[in-house]
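Field: sequence (string)
Field: structure_tokens (string)

Example rows 1 and 2, in order.
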Amino acid sequence: MEELLRTTDITVIPLARTLLADEGIECFELDVNMSVLEGSIGILPRRLMVRRDDLPAARRVLWENGVRIDG
């Protein structure tokens, strides 16, 4: 798995997951429990992971839909 994006914006991960699912790209969210433990104040980022082979297509899907990916 490769990191597609990392964010503290709670709206970005669900949007990205939906866009990727519509394209048949599987993804996995990391650090969900850590952000819950810190009290959901948005300090700790969550990460969205995809398969290495899907990374270019996943980046394209997010870019085409206006989802900013840093890095």
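Row 2 begins here:
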Amino acid sequence: MKVNAYLEITMKIAEANRPAAVKVYTDYRAPFLETITGALTKELLARAEDVQVLHGFDSIEHAQAYLESGLFQKDVFTGLKPLWDVEPNIRIYSVV
């Protein structure tokens, strides 16, 4: 399948909290790829000012649906929320 949409979640997370954020990413990467409809890729990107998780999907609709899924709402969101310095920036992009 081809990636047709990206869900980008950008989070400001203090350096001291980054190992915990990496653990959340690692714990839920496989379940994301194995159980979320349309999920194709998931990458963790880090730079000094923030951390991004870039999710590849087969459609914008599946990217949007993931944000409402139990995996995101109950597991990923709950695990990451205490680590944020500010609310994350969430964007969905269409591949053109």
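free_text_note (row 2): The beta strands are 5-11, 39-46, 51-57, 89-94.
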